[in-house]
Amino acid sequence: MTRWSPLASLALLILGVGTAEVASAEPTTYTLNGGRLEVLVKYDRNALIAGHDHVLVSTGFSGTVTWDPDNVGACKVDIKMPVESLVVDPPGARQRRGLEGDTSDGDKKTIKKNALSKGQLHSDEHPHITYKATGCRAAGNGAVVTGTLTMRGASKPVETTMAITADGQSFGAKGAFTSSHTAFGFSPYTALLGSLKNDDTLTFYIDVKGAPQ
Length: 213
Description:
Elements: H1 6-15, E1 28-43, E2 54-58, E3 62-67, E4 76-82, E5 86-88, H2 93-96, H3 105-115, E6 128-139, E7 142-151, E8 154-166, E9 171-180, E10 190-191, E11 196-212
Antiparallel strand pairs: 1-2, 1-3, 1-11, 2-5, 3-4, 4-6, 6-7, 7-8, 8-9, 9-11, 10-11
């Protein structure tokens, strides 16, 4: 009869033979610390007067993402963007979205004032745009993320296909989705008795980076 030595038992434990499968790593929570959140606002091509498209870029967003590549459904996303932090057409933004030309400093100031006004984002009453994920499912090298976007006091579901890179030491996510002014209860900006106005569609671009907490 072969005797079973303590040394053999230790070797099997080290090799993992006959033992329970080692539990997978816990999800990593990353604090967002870089990248961009942008909103493309286009003018209405059917209006009597041709306007200009503009990119509003958040320079002060914050948030966290919890991610586990082995358990995509466990994802959590929580982002807050102060509307006062929006910058109109900062350097490089128009080029990223395929827009020609530049916007003068005076026009940028006027556009931001209009964007934050009572008829638009109404920053006095609603100082933040927020996003919170409600679910994720795997899609290629990333995930389809469903969540709730809250803007101007109204909350609506949105779905975004995100390309995600994460290794426990850094995190990156990139994607885009469309919504509209009217979905959140307000009309696109108009001027000159409606001869000049914005299109209803809003396109949100996400390109964020993070580090583990």
